[in-house]
Amino acid sequence: MSIIGVIVLTVSRSVAIFLVDAGLLFEEFFARISRLVIPAFAFVTFYSLIVILFASAYRLISVYTAGPHFYVGGAPSALSFSESIYFSIGTISTVGYGDIIPYSSLARVLASLEVFCGIMLLLFGVSELLEYAREHRQDRLRK
C-alpha cells in the first residue's frame, strides 16, 4: 500500500500540471470558436438556403413537367419533397450516393449548377471565415 502511495505522490504533481494545461487549452479553443459563431451561422444559413431552393426546383420539375426527370431505385419516379431535400444535400456536398439519379437534361443541368454553387460556397465561405478570424486576431494584437 505504501508503494502505491509513493507512486501517487510522485505522479500527482505531473497529473495536476497536465490537467491545468489541458484546461487552459480548452479555454483558448472555446474563446476562438466563440468568435466564429456568427460567420459560421451565416455560412450554414446560406448553405441551407441553397439546399432548399434546389430541392424546391427538383420537386417542381419532377411534378409539373412532362416526362421522367429522376430515377429512384432504378425506376423513373417523381420526387417527394423529402427525396428532393435528400438529393439536394447529396448533390451539393458532391457525395452522390446514386440511389436518385437525374435523368433528363434539365435535371442534370440543375444538379450540375448545384454542385458548382456548393463548391463556390465552400471556397468563399471558408475564405471568409479565415479572413474574419485573421481580422479579429489583428484587432486583438493592436489592443
**What's the number of helices?**
4
Overall form? elongated
Mean pLDDT across all amino acids: 86
Low-confidence stretches: none
Strand neighbour order, sheet with most strands: 2-1-3
| CATH class assignment of the largest domain | Mainly Alpha
**Which sheet architecture does the biggest sheet show?**
3 strands, antiparallel
The structure class reads mainly alpha
Which oligomerization state do the chains in this entry correspond to?
single chain
Number of domains: 2
Radius of gyration: 25 Å
CATH fold description of the largest domain: Helix Hairpins
Q: In sequence order, what are the helices and strands, one letter per element?
A: HHEEHEH
Helix content: over 70%
Distance between the termini: 54 Å
